[in-house]
Design a protein that fits this description.
Structural class of chain B: mainly alpha
Oligomer: heterodimer
Shape of chain B: globular
Mean pLDDT of chain B: 87
Order of helices and strands of chain A: HHHHEEHHHHHHH
Largest interface: A-B, 51 and 57 residues
Strand content of chain A: under 5%
Helix content of chain B: 55-70%
Low-confidence stretches of chain A: none
Distance between the termini of chain B: 15 Å
Radius of gyration of chain B: 27 Å
Structural class of chain A: mainly alpha
Number of helices of chain B: 25
């Protein structure tokens, strides 16, 4: 293998495929954190989304045919939203430490798939393969992607529009900066936070759906591989803005694709390349500095 | 103040006692009372009071134990529970007596039943039937008898809240209220999952009508949870549980230590990996005599972890970047370093390959075995339990329980000394009477590292509550701004806390690598880094106290061991049910057990007393 391998459209395709889930999850995190709720649960929500997407599609394969994965997508997003809602209830209604609540969700995501898979497929690690995965759309053979990929990039635009051009976005931002001030202007802080967290869950759920039925055709254990956490890092690196998030996920996505490409090559040990995005995150975070984020993030609101 | 003067139990307490007594009373008639026998796949022969026997196994035992005494006692128990309900309803001051009566009756009834089962077993043993073929050995009480005992205990405690002296004593236990309620809630939610996932284990020859379904489902729940806790009653399984608990104590302490300083350490998986790598490097490659090698290995493990905690500590102190993200990232980096070192014996670098000396030849990613001198002894061989004819006395356990109870309940200057002496005297006196010969020898990878963990817990307590450093760390944890204003160096303490936390997690290396907990004295791919995340659960469940961490770790060790049996014996359920229970516990603790703040953190007792005094003067 030599350098030319990396100048192919196939490699470009694989970069885009590694960006998509990161981007979806990070945009999800953006909604939640802009409203003042830390969403460390993204990792777990991705797993739930992937599981729900694969299981629903597999169960509906026979009756719905090629429409099944679309229902699977909706199911994945809804389950993601539902799990995020649990996080929201614990951290908004019961004013729990948001990091602890998120960690609990992530732990749930370790246990629940095993139980569901054991119940449905007598396995603890993977689901049955789906017959109809999401379709692949594209220009050339190598640049074909499943719909969630296009959706992810479209979401950047939508997020930007919602956040900066709609009253709802203004309220989200106000709630994240100064909830008391927002409340005094008649904003229902609780409702804004609930919806923002649920949206974030639906997006992260979609990231999971992409992994299980957009990129592969089954759910396997540990398929999230830390994407949720890297998405959080990308969110911080991108300074909590949609465009920043896009740029930082491109960077992280590139490294993830590179690591895959280098696996088995003799250029660098793949484990070393695997580490790069993580090391990069640490370095970048050190220089991004503190307090660029929403001011009220992580603080329970008592109104 | 009405409740204080009229010597009535509080409204909440009596309501709780009343509801539970009512449930127990109804439960006597609608829950299975006891299990006479149970086959391997979990189907049981049940005793339903007052209806008689129901069999789900298809092969009921030939003889049914004598149920006359237990049955009569059950009727008396029903009356006693009814009295408790009335006492609770009317908030009588004698509620505690009714509770005590139910408690004793429940225990006697349980004893009567088990005694009769034991008689049958002995009869078969005398006829030279091999032990594993005796069905009665798997029997015991069931939910129908458990609830009266629990209800009696609750009514006793709730009734005693009428007395201010006892109320003060119970105050000391308020700290365990949230973990306790969280465990209960997670058991309830876990039960729903069990019911949804697992069908009633029953022989196919049995037609499952409504009654069979009902009792079968309830028995299933009982079976799952008793199986999860069963390791407590078997010495081999108990050793296994303590072995699984050892790394949890380390990581639990690691998370708790950082928590006390206001830092969230999600980095225990990485820290334990680095600790294990360092311990392996010393254990395999440093040529030293054993008396130096072991302490050096332990130190190396701590240093490895400490280094991995130091990094996010410095980053937080110097650059203010969140330790949450950084520790998570460092987990992945540590995993990468592990694979880099042990995944291959060659290092490719731009077309060239360099040899790496760490991976031992073979398919699996593992290190070379540790030198003999660097290994920690298994506890079973230290206690002489790996020979035949060994015996173990459980009197120390009684001693520890006595010590804890006295320490918590007595209010005296020298209570530590008193309780300690009582504990030691009782365990020495009972040593030979409570000695039980072991059926089979104990072989387990439980090793000296367990004691290192206990020492760490003790040191945690000393450092945190008896030194200036600990005071500063806690001050930073409670309010960094106030601490800064009080002249405490927040940055220095942040780095210190993360470093010590990392060191604690790193000490897992002594267990896995030096103690041979990975089945061999090597560092392997199967290093269970998930234990690091369990540390978060442990720290939360233990409320960030060292004693709490040790107790919760042992609880988790027991559940993990029990989970294996659930996995084996039920077809649809697997050990992930344990993971689910753990996650639910954290979730409920995060929500403070859904308890109101009036219950979890009422005004301090001292303040209440002062207020009362002032009222009296006025």
């Amino acid at each position: 293998m030599n350098w030319e391998t990396f100048l192919t459209t196939a490699f470009l395709g694989s970069i885009i495929r590694s960006i998509a889930p990161l981007l979806l999850a990070a945009l999800g995190g953006l909604f939640s954190e802009r409203s003042g709720i830390v969403n460390i649960a993204l990792e777990g929500i991705i797993i739930f989304g992937a599981l729900a997407g694969a299981v629903t599609t597999q169960l509906l394969d026979a009756s719905l045919g090629s429409a099944a994965p679309w229902v699977g997508w909706i199911a994945g997003a809804l389950v993601g939203g539902l799990v995020a809602w649990i996080h929201a209830v614990i951290s908004i209604k019961y004013r729990a430490d948001q990091v602890i609540s998120g960690t609990a969700i992530n732990l749930l995501a370790v246990g629940v798939p095993g139980i569901v898979l054991g119940f449905l497929y007598q396995s603890t690690t993977e689901s049955k393969q789906v017959e109809h995965a999401l379709p692949q759309w594209g220009l050339t053979e190598e640049l074909t992607f499943s719909p969630p990929v296009y959706f992810a990039f479209l979401m950047v635009l939508i997020t930007w529009y919602v956040l900066y051009k709609t009253p709802y976005g203004l309220r989200i931002r106000a709630t994240g900066e100064h909830p008391k001030a927002a409340a005094s202007m008649g904003v229902n802080v609780y409702r804004i936070r609930y919806t923002a967290v649920i949206i974030s869950g639906m997006l992260a759920g979609t990231a999971g759906v992409f992994l299980s039925i957009g990129n592969l055709n089954a759910y396997t254990k540990n398929m999230s591989a830390g994407i949720g956490f890297i998405a959080l890092a990308a969110l911080i690196f991108g300074k909590w803005t949609p465009v920043g998030v896009l740029l930082s996920t491109v960077l992280f996505g590139f490294f993830r694709a590179l690591a895959t490409q280098l696996g088995g090559s003799n250029l660098l040990p793949s484990s070393l390349v695997d580490m790069m995005p993580y090391v990069l995150t640490i370095i970048v975070l050190a220089f991004t500095g503190k307090s660029v984020g929403p001011r009220a993030v992580g603080k329970p609101y008592e109104g | 103040m009405l409740s204080k003067t009229s010597k009535q139990p509080t409204v909440f307490a009596s309501r709780l006692a009343g509801i539970l007594a009512l449930v127990a009373l109804l439960g006597l008639f609608v829950f299975p009372t006891a299990t006479i026998a149970r086959n391997f796949s979990g189907a049981g022969t049940l005793w339903l009071f007052p209806r008689g026997i129901m069999d789900l196994s298809g092969f009921p035992p030939e003889k049914i134990p004598d149920l006359a005494l237990a049955g009569t006692l059950n009727w008396v128990l029903a009356v006693s529970l009814l009295v408790t309900v009335i006492a609770a309803w009317r908030r009588q001051s004698w509620l505690w007596m009714a509770g005590l009566l139910s408690l004793l009756l429940g225990l006697v009834c349980a004893w009567a039943f088990t005694h009769n089962l034991g008689l049958l077993s002995q009869e078969l043993l005398a006829n030279n039937v091999p032990k594993r073929r005796i069905p009665y050995l798997t029997g015991g009480i069931n939910m129908g008898l458990l609830f009266p005992v629990l209800s009696g205990l609750t009514a006793l405690v709730c009734g005693l809240t009428a007395s201010p002296v006892w109320m003060q004593r119970f105050e000391r236990f308020r700290g365990i209220l949230i973990p306790f309620v969280s465990i209960l809630l997670s058991i309830v939610v876990g039960s729903i999952v069990v019911l949804l996932v697992q069908a009633v284990p029953a022989d196919p020859s049995i037609k499952l009508d409504f009654a069979h379904q009902w009792y079968g489902k309830l028995d299933l729940l009982w079976f799952v949870y008793t199986t999860l806790f069963a390791p407590l009653t078997n010495i081999n399984d108990l050793f296994q549980s303590l072995m699984l608990a050892t790394p949890l104590i380390f990581t639990g302490l690691a998370v708790a230590f950082a928590f006390r300083t206001g830092l969230f350490n999600i980095g225990a998986p990485g820290q334990l990996t680095m600790g294990a790598i360092f311990a392996m490097l010393v254990g395999v490659y440093v040529p030293l005599p054993a008396w130096l090698l072991v302490p050096l290995g332990v130190l190396a493990a701590a240093l490895g972890g400490a280094f991995w905690g130091f990094i996010p500590g410095v980053l937080k102190a110097r650059f203010g970047s969140s330790e949450v993200i950084n520790t998570i990232m460092l987990n992945y980096v540590a995993a990468g370093i592990f694979v880099l070192m042990l995944g291959s014996d060659k290092l490719p670098f731009f077309g060239k390959e360099y040899p790496l000396p760490f991976k031992s030849p073979g398919f699996e990613a593992k290190s070379y075995p540790l030198q003999e001198g660097a290994r920690l002894q298994p506890l079973s061989s230290l206690l002489g339990l790996d020979q035949s004819g060994a015996a173990l006395s459980w009197s120390p356990l009684i001693g520890i329980i006595l010590f804890t109870l006295l320490f918590l309940l007595v209010r005296h200057r020298y209570r530590a000394l008193l309780a300690g002496t009582a504990g030691v005297v009782v365990s020495v006196l009972l040593w030979s009477t409570l000695k039980i010969p072991l059926d089979n020898t104990v072989g387990s990878h439980l090793n000296t590292s367990f004691f290192i963990a206990l020492v760490c817990a003790w040191l945690f307590a000393i450092v945190m509550w008896r030194t200036t450093t600990g005071y500063e760390l806690r001050a930073v944890g409670l309010s960094p701004k106030a601490a800064e204003y009080g002249g405490i160096n927040v940055s220095r303490n942040t780095v210190l806390a993360m470093t010590i936390a990392g060191g604690l997690a790193g000490l897992c290396g002594t267990h896995y690598v030096m103690g041979g907990a990975l089945d061999e004295y090597v560092l392997k791919q199967s290093l269970p880094t998930n234990v690091g995340f369990d540390g978060i659960t442990i720290a939360l469940l233990g409320q960030n106290t060292p004693l709490g961490v040790v107790v919760s770790s042992i609880l988790f060790g027991v559940l993990d061991t029990g989970g294996l049996y659930v996995d084996q014996r039920l077809d649809a359920l697997n050990r992930d049910i344990v993971t689910l229970l753990k996650a639910l516990i954290v979730l409920f603790i995060a929500a403070q057990g859904f308890l109101s703040r009036k219950i979890t953190s009422p005004p301090p007792a001292v303040l209440v007393k002062d207020l009362e005094k002032k009222e009296g003067q006025a």
